[in-house]
Structures are given as C-alpha cells and as structure tokens.
Amino acid sequence: MDAYFCTAVASFFVTRRDQSLPETRGELEAEITRFSYPGTDTDILCGIHFRLPPGGMLGICGPTGSGKTTLLSLIQRHYDLSEGHIDYHGYPLPALLLDGWRQRLAVVNQTPFLFSDTIANNIALGAPQASRDQIEQAAMLASVHEDILHLPDGYDTQVGERGVMLSGGQKQRISLARALLMNAEILILDDALSAVDGETEHRILSRLQEWRAGKTVIITAHRLSALRGADEILVLQQGRITQRGTAAVLAEEAGWYREMSQYQKMAESLSQHIEHPQPKEH
Asked: Where in the cell is it found (predicted)?
C-alpha cells in the first residue's frame, strides 16, 4: 500500500502540534548520526547529512540494501531518530503532529496499492473533491491518460481487487497521478517508475520538471536516468554517503555511480540492438 496511506509506527509520542509551521514551503534538513531498527544493533544509516531547499529535487541511489528506503521511512516518520534529527522549517519532525506532517507528503512506492473501484476514484483517493478535469490532468502528467481511455469504460472502468487487470507500469502511473493530484508540498518517489519503459520514464520526468515549480521532490531509483534532473544526488553504500553531486559531476567521478551508469547505458544499447537489429548487407 502506498506509504502515505499506511499507518506507521513511530518510536516517540508527538509532543507539539504543527500549527506554528508557516504555510509556505520550507527547507528539509537531515543530520542522521546513526540509525538502527528497534531491537537491533546493526547500523542501517550512518553520517547522513543533506539540506533540501523548497522547490529542490534530491536524488538517492545505491545498490540494493544501501539504506535508500530506510532514509525515506525516516522522512515519513515510520520511525524516529535517537541519534540525529530531521527538521522541516527548522522544527524537528517529532515536534510536529504526525498526521499534519504526512499531509504535507505525497508518496509513490515501487509496489503501488489500488483498490476495487473505478480508475477515477483510485486517482482521487487523496483528493476526493477533485473534478474529473483535475483527475484527467493528473493522469496526463503521469502519462497514463491514453492507457485509461483504451480501457472498456475509460475512467469509470472498475480495476478489480489490487488492480489485477492492469500492468505494473499502469498501476505505478495511476499511483503517481494520485500523488500529483494531492498537490502536496513534498513528493516522494521510491523507485516509482521501475515498471515503465525508458521512453515513458523520460516523458513523465520531463512533465514533472514543468509541474514541480516550487514543489520539493525526493526520488530514489535503480535506473539512474530517472535522477538526471536532480539538483543533488546522494550515492548510498552500506548506509553511508560515498558520493554526492549532480548527474554530470558524478558521471565524471570514479565510483559506483559512473560504473553503474556506464553499465546501464551498455545494457540499454544492447537491448535496443536486439529489439531493432540492423538489416544484413547483401
């Protein structure tokens, strides 16, 4: 289920409401000395620091198990820190009313949740007062509008339990449309485009660059092409930041990012060659 709609477990009680937070978008700052899951001694994150200004885009990448999703869980307050802090507008997150903080977030996970209802109602789950035009605009941004029009009843098509009649890519894009329609201050994409092809991913990200003016975006991805528009990219390995910078800077710097980028480009080129082989000369 999308993280925004999950009930999360926090390790501290909330002590103060968020009424003092300005209505304007604020800076998100993290200073994580160390974090391990409750009941364990294994450090999952160590020495993580970043500042994300309002309207900025932060990319996060690294091998499987490097701590990417854990970092996003801390931002969403699935857990609270005992060593370090994450602040928004200068307030530590545990000082904010939990529901109030999550209302400022829209989250799309790699495995989205759809319920048995119409496509339109699934998209409008976080914004039930949205008009049909607003729903369709969000679907266009998520590059799923045309797919929906080809369904038997368009936006009124019943998707079935957990969206079983839809492809993985369609479910991800419908979940993205839902998040965009919420118009939250911070959009979190946790490998949320993993099931779409490269061309569709590029189209979505290009539209997001236009849409996100003034909005803050945090995106994790295994496919590094999804991070090209980020103002800063963090490379996590074994819970630590081993590289940071823009895509252009990291592509020139020896390390995990450049190696993975070169590997993915080679794999994509090989895939295109197999799908569209050159005609043989006679």
From this structure: Cell membrane
pLDDT tens across 222-261, in order?
999 999 999 999 999 999 999 999 999 999 999 999 999 9
What residue segments make up the domains of the chain, in order of their start? Answer: 1-16+23-104+218-273
Q: Give the integer Cα–Cα distance in Å for 219 and 200.
A: 17
Report pLDDT digits (tens) over 12-53: 433 444 546 777 889 999 999 999 999 999 999 999 999 999
Task: State the pLDDT at residue 151.
Answer: 92
Identify the CATH homologous superfamily for domain 1-16+23-104+218-273. Answer: P-loop containing nucleotide triphosphate hydrolases (3.40.50.300)
Number of H helices, E strands in the chain: 9, 10
Total count of residues recorded for the chain = 282
The percentage of the chain sitting over the pLDDT mark of 70, rounded to a whole number, equals 87
Q: Is 183 left (phi over 0), alpha (psi -120 to 50) or beta?
A: left
- Retrieve residue 40's tokens: 């364990």
Supply 164's token pair. 């079983």
Q: Return d(Cα 96, Cα 27) in angstroms, integer.
A: 15
Q: What is the 3-state secondary structure (H, E, C) of 70-132?
A: HHHHHHCCCCCCCEEEEEECCEEHHHCCHHHHHCCEEEECCCCCCCCCEHHHHHHHHCCCCCH
